Amino acid sequence: MKRVLFVDDDAAVLDGLRLRLHGLRRQWEMVFVESASRAVTEIEHRPVDVVVSDLRMPTMDGVQLLEVVRDRWPECIRIVLSGYGAEDQSTRALPVAHQYLSKPCDASQLESVISRCLHLHDVLRQPALRSIVGRVRHLPALPRTYRQLRDLIAQPDASVDSVAAVIASDTALTAKVLQVVNSAFFRRARIVKKINAAVAHLGFTTIANIALSVELFSNWSSNIARIPSLHPEALQARAHSVAAVTRALTAGTSISDDAMLAGLLHNIGYWILLQECSGELERAEQLSHERGIPLFEIEYELIGASHAEVGAYLLGLWGLPSVVIEAVALQYRASEVPQMELDVLGALVIAQSLVSTDDDGCDPVLNAAPIAGAEYLRAINAPFDWQEAHRRAAVALGDLHA
Q: Angle, to 10 degrees, between the axis of helix 160-168 and the axis of helix 195-202?
């Protein structure tokens, strides 16, 4: 039984949580404490799987508590549940919280978030996955520029000029970011020639996500894949296409940046598999064609895990947003977790279904026979129907190919 610890200095809040979550007592062992110090003592006495903490508490606040949990019990899932919405406090929580929920929070939403985090935790603990990662001689580090940008953006006084300066410190990266920004991916009305103008127009998070994608794919070796569909250029083309569609599906929503990042990184697991399991991948590609079944299913059969879980494991080591890690890990297994609305995982599933490739495996096109369709959109309460999803994808891919 999973053990979940709730921390809040307001006894009434804890009583409300205890009452609303009473029906889950057979699934989780739930502990409720009124201070961060008591929470630390409780975990020292007996480890927990999840900590759900308020932010604003006396003596030791929620961020300080989660920092302790991160450092001493790194496998523990850390969730913020707070009604305190000050921007500086929320920003402080970004590096230490896997999920951030606002009070009041519906019991079903809280249950869904905790359940999905626990499920992902179990997925990434598979023995086969640990075995694959254990074969890796050198796990790639989080790209330097993205790490600098992420740390800078977390500062309350971050400015357009300071973010632009980090990008501009690498001439090659500056050129590539400007190339991407001026591509049809962003449908710009006029050419952007300066990196600070790109930052001002797109926003900090989007520009950091683009920088991450550019750094990652520029470091892929062109000699590691003998399979056309898994050549780095083909993988990058598909990643940009899926990202364009996820961005189109979530335009104007709060999840747009994370959805785009999930699209850009959804096949990053091949970075590891192409280096460590290239023989198995070649055989998997052959069997996929012979049997007429998806490549990821053969990956499970021959390797023990697919590129989805391997990629999510790498993103977890890098400390990327948990919603992105979840989407990458569960992109082929979304039915295993509850989905109440269009979220990052849902956007990636739909985009993956809509984007196909040509016969050479190198030119992403609109899929004429998508896997996820109208029924899936209704099941997750998507704010658009299948016809609209198809239209947005067609426009996004048309822009990329223009």
A: 130
Percent of the chain at pLDDT above 90?
A: 27
Domain span at 296: 220-402
Do 159 and 118 share a structural domain? no
202 lies in the same domain as 245: no
Whether 153 and 206 have beta carbons less than 8 Å apart is answered as no
Helix axes 322-329, 256-265, angle to 10 degrees: 40
The domain total for the chain is 3
pLDDT in tens, 246-298: 999 999 998 998 998 899 899 988 888 887 788 888 899 889 889 988 889 99
Average pLDDT in the 63-75 region? 88
Q: Tell me the pTM.
A: 0.72
Q: What is the pLDDT of residues 377-397, one digit of tens each?
A: 999 999 999 999 999 999 988
CA distance 262 to 344: 7
Span 11-18, average pLDDT: 93
Do β-strands 2-7 and 50-53 pair in parallel, antiparallel, or remain unpaired? Answer: parallel
Do 314 and 197 lie in one domain? The reply is no
- Residues 228 and 202 occupy one common structural domain: no
* Exposed/middle/buried for residue 136 (C-beta within 10 Å: 0-12, 13-18, 19+): middle
Position 129 in a domain: no
Helices (H), 156-231: 160-168, 171-181, 195-202, 204-218
